[in-house]
């Protein structure tokens, strides 16, 4: 596994806490694989317009599956990325800020210790969110993609350390979308890549991962009768993750990935299946060279595709609506809709 060459984290001093007095809002998501920041102001067709952003692969969850702990190298990389985010925020007047950590910090034995270190080094009010809040925030960001004819939505987010499934009652004139049920599987692209990544390049290994995930999904289906609801009609399948956006980029034959071209696209499942088969046929070197994948994500694509195949197997639908939006966008919308500015 390739490790980024980064300077030691002690180089940067603790950052001052961003001032919460301006017109901008900020959402920071420290995931199992990436550290991402969005800074936005009110306005625009989606309710906000992005004025700054940051994204870096930090692999915070590297080795977590085997040891149950965040490694020193992984924590160092994450702290450096968080310091870069704090520097960006320190140059702006920030009215509302939320900074969250997800599955890696939820699972790690030393997650709380790492968060204390990160807060001290950056001044950021970093907190761990639970799986339910993570699902609810994804629902908030993706709700505009629902149609008036939708009764329900099945929203999936294939993350680095986990896969979140949200079962949603669509909005009505009287009520906003409602989270009926959710489940979080400790099966994300990073954890699966570490445990079974090489085998996903074989038909047998890919099938084994897909069936493992499908078995977990069937338990959730038993509780909520989602398959029966899909058969009755009016259920939209919604996907938000690097896996589904990559599949969309391949299905659309994009010369390089474009968020504008992918976000909100409704992809026929037959086209998604063909895109998955194309990615599988490329092998590792082909994935590295593919313009919608690249070297940083090549080892994660097929584990993610195996999770998608499991979702497709348990809940067959004719189409999937692709969302290049998720946790950070939901955080921003919640901050902007709050009755008064808040610091989380």
Automatic annotation (TrEMBL):
GO terms for molecular function: pyrophosphatase activity. InterPro entries: ATPase_NBD, GppA/Ppx_hydrolase, Ppx_GppA_N. Residues 43-336 form the Ppx/GppA phosphatase N-terminal domain. It holds the Pfam family Ppx-GppA. PANTHER family: EXOPOLYPHOSPHATASE, RETROGRADE REGULATION PROTEIN 2. This is Exopolyphosphatase/guanosine-5'-triphosphate, 3'-diphosphate pyrophosphatase.
């Amino acid at each position: 596994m390739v490790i980024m060459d980064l300077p030691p984290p002690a180089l940067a001093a603790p950052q001052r806490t961003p001032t919460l007095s301006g017109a901008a809002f900020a959402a920071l998501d420290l995931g199992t694989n990436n550290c991402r920041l969005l800074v936005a102001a009110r306005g625009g067709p989606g309710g906000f317009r992005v004025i700054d952003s940051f994204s870096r692969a930090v692999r915070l969850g590297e080795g977590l599956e085997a040891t149950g702990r965040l490694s020193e190298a992984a924590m160092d990389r994450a702290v450096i990325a968080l310091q870069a985010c704090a520097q960006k925020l320190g140059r702006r007047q920030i009215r509302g800020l939320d900074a969250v950590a997800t599955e890696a910090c939820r699972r790690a034995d030393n997650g709380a210790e790492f968060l204390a270190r990160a807060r001290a080094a950056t001044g950021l009010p970093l907190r761990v969110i639970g799986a339910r809040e993570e699902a609810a925030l994804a629902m908030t960001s993706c709700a505009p993609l629902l149609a008036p004819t939708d009764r329900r939505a099945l929203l999936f987010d294939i993350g680095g350390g986990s896969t979140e499934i949200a079962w949603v009652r669509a909005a009505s004139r009287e009520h906003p979308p409602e989270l009926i049920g959710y489940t979080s599987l400790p099966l994300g692209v990073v954890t699966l890549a570490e445990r079974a990544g090489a085998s996903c390049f074989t038909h047998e290994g890919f099938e084994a991962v897909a069936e493992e995930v499908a078995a977990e999904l069937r338990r959730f289906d038993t509780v909520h009768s989602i398959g029966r609801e899909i058969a009755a009609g009016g259920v939209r399948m919604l996907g938000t993750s690097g896996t589904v956006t990559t599949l969309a980029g391949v299905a659309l034959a994009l010369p390089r990935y474009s968020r504008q071209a992918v976000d909100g696209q409704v992809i026929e499942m037959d086209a998604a299946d063909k895109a998955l088969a194309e990615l599988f046929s490329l092998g590792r070197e082909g994935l590295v060279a593919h313009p919608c994948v690249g070297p940083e994500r090549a080892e994660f694509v097929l584990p993610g595709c195996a999770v998608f195949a499991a979702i497709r197997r348990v809940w067959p639908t004719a189409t999937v609506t692709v969302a290049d939006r998720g946790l950070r966008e939901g955080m921003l919308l919640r901050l902007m809709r709050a009755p008064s500015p808040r610091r989380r």
